[in-house]
Automatic annotation (TrEMBL):
Catalyzes the formation of N(7)-methylguanine at position 46 (m7G46) in tRNA. This is tRNA (guanine-N(7)-)-methyltransferase. NCBIfam families: tRNA (guanosine(46)-N7)-methyltransferase TrmB. Keywords: Methyltransferase, S-adenosyl-L-methionine, Transferase, tRNA processing. The gene is trmB. It comes from Nitrosomonas marina. The lineage of its organism: Bacteria, Pseudomonadati, Pseudomonadota, Betaproteobacteria, Nitrosomonadales.
Amino acid sequence: MIHTIRSFVLRQGRISNAQRRACETLLPKYGIPFKREQIKLESVFGRQAPKILEIGFGMGETTADIAYTHPDRDYLAVEVHTPGVGSLLNQIETRGLTNLRIIQHDAVEVMQHMLSPMSLDGVHIFFPDPWPKAKHHKRRLIQPSFVNHLCKLLKQGAYVHLATDWEEYAQHMIAVLNNERLLYNTASQYANRPAYRPVTKFEKRGIKLGHAVWDVIFRRNSNPSSLPETALNKAD
């Protein structure tokens, strides 16, 4: 059971007419309504292929690029904010993406109620809210109970890819994932950015200002006792 995590705040942000129309006309086509029962991802996408969950896709540019570049994989994208949902819906329609679907709902509840054990080949969580103030750290998405439940949804060998531009949060991510014995770090500490994760506009602006970005990539192991001690402690 995931301890209650409210890692987002629903703000009354500006939504464009195009985004509003997309939510009205395209969400029934490319969206999956939230419900408290498990779904079969193979039935949703109509095929057998690797299934990747993306949590919090912002305005969706990166998500659309990844899905376009990897048509052999299916992507389930979860987001709560309506402008971003509308933006990604328009990109799905314009680019003819058949391997991308959206659930507009709290990702924690989606994980708890809609996804079945060992159904995912990967998880992307790029630039989640770092909640930088110490009194707000409890609102961070990456928490032990969240990661533990996430592991139950991963197939053996599946990966968890996190990225952040907040160094203290990156350290927190490493610590939480390293303490989950069903996961092991694929790098000695932080991973190099994989080619499949494009550099976002936000990231490019930050790099020009001298800001760094940290990628954290772990994999699921069904028998952690079989891992060498060095693999279990890479991120220490």
